[in-house]
Design goal:
Helix content: 40-55%
Number of strands: 5
Length: 185
């Protein structure tokens, strides 16, 4: 005996009715909350240039790292001061710190009037302005060029970045001082 082929339209209608009945029993699906995008940190963006070749990652919690340094060198040593600075910077940059770029950025902030320009404009202290500049740097919005100058940039990925996933160097903010830190130029 030959089996009759079911009408595809009728089959779709039965399937839709079955789904509607199930949805009525179960209730509506909860709305999905979109996950906020996690911004990439500088290390993940792989910035170009000589200032981004040496990265440091202090291992351990801040307390463990400071205890080891103070046990070895003393609490008032230059090494302890440097480690306190690196641990403060790690809060901004994440686990990987570009030593040459951070050193050059600190030199630029100390040797130019950039902080004096920023502080009154945005209504914050010089220390808060310094942390803001480091935060912009940590997210790739500012980079140190090979000549040691500070540039506003657009990292690869956003709509306004350069084609082919390259960095866009938009505007030079601070020229390099005569003294530079951590670059082989």
């Amino acid at each position: 005996m030959a089996r009759k082929q079911a009408d595809p339209t009728a089959r779709r209608a039965r399937e839709a009715a079955r789904r509607a009945a199930a949805a009525e029993r179960i209730g509506p699906r909860p709305a999905r909350t979109p996950r906020p995008r996690q911004p990439k940190l500088l290390f993940d963006l792989e910035p170009p240039g000589v200032f981004y070749t040496d990265w440091d990652s202090p291992v351990g919690t801040d307390t463990e790292v400071m205890a080891e340094v103070t046990d070895r060198f003393g609490a008032d040593s230059d090494e302890a001061t440097t480690m306190r600075f690196l641990l403060r910077i790690r809060e901004i940059y994440g686990p990987n710190i570009p030593l040459g770029a951070v050193g050059q950025l600190e030199l630029l902030l100390d040797e130019t009037d950039l902080l004096n320009q920023l502080s009154p404009r945005i209504g914050v202290s010089a220390d808060d302005a310094r942390d803001s500049v480091h935060s912009l740097h940590a997210h790739g919005m500012l980079l140190i060029a090979d000549d040691g100058s500070l540039w506003m940039t657009v990292p690869p990925g956003p709509p306004y970045s350069a084609p082919d996933g390259q960095w866009s160097f938009v505007e030079q903010k601070v020229e390099a001082p005569a003294e530079q830190v951590g670059a082989d130029t």
